[in-house]
Amino acid sequence: MYTPRHFGMPADLQARMLAAPGVGDLITHGPSGLLATHLPYVFDGAMGEQGSLVLHVARPNRQWREAVEGEALFVITMASDYISSLWYPSAAESGQYVPTWDYVTLHMYGRLIVHDDLAWTTMAVQRLMAVHETEVGMADMPAHYLGGQLRAIVGLQLQVTRVEAKAKLSQNRTPDDVRGVIGGLDGAGAEVMADLVTEYALPASERRAALIADVAARRRPDRVTGE
After folding, report:
1. What is the CATH classification number for the domain harbouring 203?
2. Total-model pTM
3. What is the mean pLDDT of each run of 10 residues along the chain (227 residues)?
4. Which residue range is the domain that position 114 belongs to?
């Protein structure tokens, strides 16, 4: 994934994403070519050197049979929103109305391990339910029904070997432009992205602007000297 340095994801944001189970896309390559499945996940940092994603798929899904070799990719996107150039004060002054798209995403690469056994799939479902359900659990289901449901899925573990993380949050814009982006996102109802831009992009943009101003001041002579 192309990631300019100013769009690199802060470590705390990456940790926050992995601590909040959600859904992503598992992408693999096998005899049938590229395959992808949208799947819920839980990240376990203690399962493998760089952690693992705990997943499961329906048994008829051929992806688990074909993805036993080679590298697999799991894509997690925390937020993704259109950024209108009309939100930039600088665009009105310059006429440079170029919109963009901001997003926060993790690309997690690794070895996909198939767990076609009841103990592992039970663990996977228990963990997924535990982070999303507060009213019911597996113990509340009839045993025969639960057993049938568990036999209908196959457990998957993505043992992570490398992570590419990108947080494109308008950090490269001026502070006024970033404030305009925050206001535009709020107006569009994109609260998650607005909060991320406020928390990460605005401070970064302000630091960048201060640095540029400081460099300019150092290069500009305070007085004219001569002989």
Report:
1. 2.30.110.10
2. 0.89
3. 94 95 94 94 95 96 86 97 96 89 98 95 93 86 90 96 97 95 97 97 88 75 51
4. 5-219
